[in-house]
Write a structure and sequence with these properties.
alpha/beta; 16 helices; 6-stranded parallel beta sheet; single chain; Rossmann fold; 15 strands; 9-stranded mixed beta sheet; 2 domains; about 425 residues
C-alpha cells in the first residue's frame, strides 16, 4: 500500500507530539512493507544537517530521505498582512493556517492509495481536493482519505483558544477572500473517508456524525527503553537507601513550552519544596510563556532549580538520558488529548504524576496502578501527590513496574497494523 502522510510541519530540531506520532507510524508502516512518504511544509526546518539523512539541500518540492522515510517539503504562505519575519517564525511554531502551493500537485504525481492528513483547515481541504482529482473518471485509482485529530480540539479551553489567535489579531486576513474565490467550503473533518482520533472524547464526539471513526491512542517504541528502565531504577535506588523517604525530588516534564502544558505549576511547586529541581524538555512554541516562566522563577527565588533542556530529538541518547536521570515524571497539562510522553516515562520505568484531564486522565485511569493523578490546576493536590510519591519508595517501585506493563500495550508496531486495517475498511 502506498501511504501519504500530510502534516503541517516536521522538524527534527523542534519536535512535537503530532510529529512524533506521524514519524513513528510511518516507520512502523514501512517496516511492515508499505511504501510511505511524508508531505509537509518547511516550517522550522533547518536543512540537511543530521547523520541519518541522505539527500541534498533542496528547493521547494525536492526529496529528502531520513531513516529510509521519504519527506517532501513546501514553503507555507500565511495569509495575513502585514507579515513580518517574527510573526512568520511564531506561526511556523504553532498555527497560521497556511496555503501550501505545490503540495497538491506533488500528491497527484505520487498517486497514493491513502492520503492521511494530520492537519486541519486549508491543508485538510487541499487533501480532499487532491483525492477528488485522483478519482476522476479517467483514473483507475480510488485514493482513500483519512484525517487524524491530534489536538484535542473538543477540549481546548476558551482562554487557550484565544491565545492561539492572538498573533494575527488586528491583521488583514486576505486568505478568506481566496477561500471564497476557490470555493473551499467542505466540512472538515466530516468529509474525509475516515476520522482517526487520538482522544477518546473526540472519538465519541464524531461517532454520531461519521460511519468510519477510529480511536487510535499514541504509542511508544518499547525497544528503545529495553534495559534502561531497570538501570534507571537501580540508579535511583542508590540515591535512596532502603525505604527512606526522599528529602527532595528531581522532576522531569517533557512537553513543548506552551500554556497548554502548564509548566507554571511546577515553578510554583518549586517554591514549596526547597532543594527540589524541575527539568523542562521541549521546544518553545510560545516564547512569551517561557519568559513568564523565567520571570516567575526569579521572583520566587527558584531560578537555580529550574532548567530548560530545549528540544531534544526523538529517540536520541540525550532524551533517553533525561528520562533516566530523574526521580519522577510530571505532566501538569491544562488539556491533553492523550499524553504520549507518559508512555515514554512508563517505558523508562519512571513513576508518573499527571493531570486528570481529557484523554490524559483516561489513559491514567485505564492503568490505575501506573500513575498518581491530580485535578488540573490544583497546586495543593499536585504537592500532595508528589509528597506521597517522594515519601514512599515501595509506591515508587509499584508505579514503575505497573507503568512498564502499561507501556507494552501501546507499541507502535501494533498500532500501525491497526491503522492499516482501518484504511482497508473505508
Amino acid at each position: 500500500m502506498r501511504i501519504a502522510h500530510v502534516l503541517r510541519r516536521i522538524s527534527f530540531d523542534d519536535w512535537g507530539g503530532t510529529e512524533q506520532v506521524v514519524w513513528n507510524l510511518a516507520k512502523a508502516q514501512r517496516e511492515a512493507g508499505h511504501e510511505v512518504r511524508l508531505f509537509a511544509t518547511t516550517a522550522l526546518w533547518r536543512g540537511l544537517d543530521d547523520d541519518r539523512r541522505d539527500g541534498r539541500d533542496r528547493r521547494d518540492g525536492s526529496l529528502e530521505v531520513v531513516d529510509g522515510i521519504e519527506i517532501v517539503r513546501f514553503k507555507p504562505i500565511y495569509p495575513w498582512w502585514p507579515m513580518p519575519k517574527a510573526l512568520v517564525d511564531e506561526l511556523d511554531r504553532k498555527g497560521g493556517n497556511p496555503f501550501v502551493p505545490g503540495l497538491g500537485k506533488a500528491l497527484c504525481e505520487w498517486k497514493p492509495d491513502v492520503i492521511h492528513c494530520h492537519a486541519m483547515a486549508r491543508i485538510a481541504e487541499l487533501c480532499l481536493r487532491t483525492a477528488q482529482k485522483l478519482a476522476n473518471p479517467n483514473s483507475q485509482l480510488a485514493t482513500k482519505t483519512v484525517v487524524s485529530l491530534h489536538g484535542g480540539g473538543a477540549n481546548v479551553p476558551g482562554e487557550e483558544a484565544k491565545s492561539l489567535r492572538a498573533p494575527t489579531r488586528g491583521r488583514l486576513p486576505w486568505g478568506k477572500v481566496v477561500d471564497i474565490l476557490m470555493g473551499w467550503t467542505r466540512r472538515v473533518p466530516e468529509d474525509f473517508g475516515g476520522i482517526v482520533c487520538v482522544g477518546e472524547d473526540e472519538a465519541e464526539k464524531y461517532r454520531g456524525r461519521h460511519k468510519h471513526v477510529m480511536y487510535l491512542p499514541n504509542g511508544v517504541d518499547c525497544r528503545l527503553f529495553e534495559g534502561m528502565a531497570r538501570e534507571s531504577r537501580e540508579a535511583r535506588g542508590t540515591r535512596e537507601p532502603g525505604h527512606a523517604p526522599r528529602a527532595t525530588l528531581s522532576l522531569l516534564c517533557v512537553a513543548r513550552i506552551d500554556r497548554q502544558k502548564n509548566q507554571m505549576m511546577l515553578v510554583e511547586w518549586l517554591a514549596r519544596n526547597p532543594g527540589a529541581t524541575v527539568r523542562l524538555v521541549g521546544p518553545v512554541t510560545q516564547p512569551d510563556y517561557r519568559a513568564e516562566l523565567e520571570a516567575r522563577a526569579a521572583e520566587l527565588g527558584v531560578a537555580d532549580r529550574l532548567s530548560f533542556a530545549g528540544a531534544l530529538k526523538p529517540a536520541s541518547e540525550e532524551l533517553l538520558r533525561e528520562y533516566a536521570n530523574v526521580d519522577v515524571f510530571v505532566l501538569p497539562s491544562r488539556h491533553e488529548p492523550f499524553g504520549i510522553v507518559v508512555l515514554e516515562a512508563w517505558a523508562a520505568g519512571l513513576p508518573v504524576v499527571a493531570s486528570d484531564i481529557g484523554g490524559l486522565g483516561k489513559l491514567c485511569a485505564a492503568h490505575p496502578g501506573a500513575a498518581q493523578t491530580f485535578p488540573p490546576g490544583d497546586i495543593d493536590a499536585l504537592d500532595d501527590a508528589l509528597r506521597r510519591v517522594g515519601s514512599d519508595a515501595p509506591l515508587r517501585e509499584r508505579l514503575s513496574a505497573a507503568g512498564q506493563a502499561a507501556a507494552a500495550e501501546y507499541d507502535w508496531r501494533t498500532l500501525a497494523a491497526r491503522l492499516v486495517d482501518f484504511y482497508a475498511e473505508i
